[in-house]
Amino acid sequence: MSTAKRAAVPASALARLRAVCLSLPAAREEAAWAGTRWRVGSKTFAHVLMVAEGWPPAYARAAGTEGPCCVLTFRSPLPALDVHAYTWAPFFRPAWWPDIVGMRLDLDGDGGIDWDEVEGLVTESYRLLAAEKWVRQMAPPAG
Questions:
Q1: Do 40 and 26 meet the contact criterion of CB atoms below 8 Å apart?
Q2: Pick from 56, 38, 48: which is nearest to 12 by CA?
Q3: pTM score, two decimals?
Q4: What does each C-alpha distance from 95 to 16, 61, 62, 98 come to in angstroms?
Q5: What is the CATH number of domain 3-135?
Q6: How does pLDDT run across 104-133, given as a tens digit for each residue?
Q7: What's the DSSP call for residue 13?
Q8: What is the pLDDT of residues 27-63, one digit of tens each?
Q9: Is 101 exposed, middle or buried (0-12, 13-18, 19+ CB in 10 A)?
């Protein structure tokens, strides 16, 4: 496998995600089989990686791109409640879990990314997976 296929997530995206994820109670960061993931307990609430030259193939198919493209996956209850949820760009629906959602991060100058939205989605993903004792330590969800 060429080095290009193992492209690194841009440092700016990793730093922004790291700041959000590691601010959550008991969250930890670890290297994943591709990219970086954040977990609470044994559950992954956010995973970011690069799709390049069609690798990894499951992500390339789900995101509809051979790359290069940075993608974030997280959990949401909405796909189970609404078949149309997250079916518009920049989102995509991977097939491997019914509640997983993918988001293509357009990193051209970070202009196309709504980082407040990303923070909200990742935080909600955490709330869905974290033990109640950790969720109680958080501020109530906005709105």
A1: yes
A2: 48
A3: 0.88
A4: 27, 10, 7, 7
A5: 3.90.1150.30
A6: 997 555 557 889 999 999 999 999 999 999
A7: H
A8: 999 999 999 999 999 999 999 999 999 999 999 999 9
A9: buried
